[in-house]
Amino acid sequence: MLVPRLLFVGVTVIFLDGTLCRACTQSLAKGKPAYQSSTLYSKYPASNAVDAERLNNFEVRVGTTYVDNSSFTQYKLCASYPGVAPVGNTCLSCGSPLRGRYVLIIKVGSDDSYLQLCEVEVHDGALCRGCTQNLAKGKPAYQSSTIILELVRLAASLAVDGNYDDSMYHLSCTHTDLGQGQWWLVDLLRTERVAGVIITNRGDCCSDRLNNFEVRVGTTYVDNSSFTQYKLCASYPGVAPVGNMSLSCVTTSTTFKRVAAGARATLVPMSTLNVGSRTECSISCLQNWKCVAINVLCAGNDQCVCELLPSTAQSGDLQADTGYDYYEDNCLETV
């Protein structure tokens, strides 16, 4: 019997399967909730393929147990994607890093639709390939249904095989049948810290099928009824754009900070996040191309306020701010 460890993970969903050859999976349950799942350790990429518009209106959830799809309601929501996902990679990050063993991608809405994935990555840190370990690669994956293309089952495992080809007709992508509430699930085999997901939409055709979805994280799985208990990482309304898309499990709010330089004072925009550690704040900065420094104030119990300081700010002036107990320049941990 497997005894999962509790860790934090990040999820990267890319609808491709690792290598630069094309192959996809597809699910079969027409008129029934379609899902896909996989066992992961941290981050996973997902890619979209041929009929790209079929990847749309879905969720990513994380859980710690799995029995059948009725348990999906208990999975935590990591992120949701409304609309059609773009061709290529899409990154989805949880509103805040989540702890869980199972990462779920589920379609939302009452309309019948498909769910297709070419590769899914789950990460516990920065949402970029090579920055952190892809926890999803090679892990058990499941989905609500599976279609057969050219005598080949477009199984859920095709989204975690390391092949990043975005053509379903090269048998590198997963695909469900037409139906409501279709989902894909990956089992990380242990509880991990989930920071977000990166999704790559199909590039051969039908990219608008990736739309209106959520990413959720949970610790248990019995059946899809448990998905409602999964924590929401991120959601995407509408059709996903062509190319790569990142969704982070980080809730942000835009604020303005007064930066004084001698007799000069200006207001600069910045993002304020609620995170669990300085490391999370630093990772968020690395994921934001405008961020050059951070201010962090922690109140204990893994609760910290993180300020992402933009490139327009003078880091020397911001470092003098006494309202925070930690400062990091350019996310290089220079205090």
TrEMBL record:
Gene3D superfamilies: Galactose-binding domain-like. This is Uncharacterized protein LOC106177244. The gene is LOC106177244. GO terms for biological process: regulation of cellular defense response; regulation of complement activation, lectin pathway. The keyword Membrane does not apply. InterPro entries: BG_Antigen-Binding_Lectin, FTP1, Galactose-bd-like_sf, Pan_app. The keyword Signal applies. Residues 249-331 form the Apple domain.
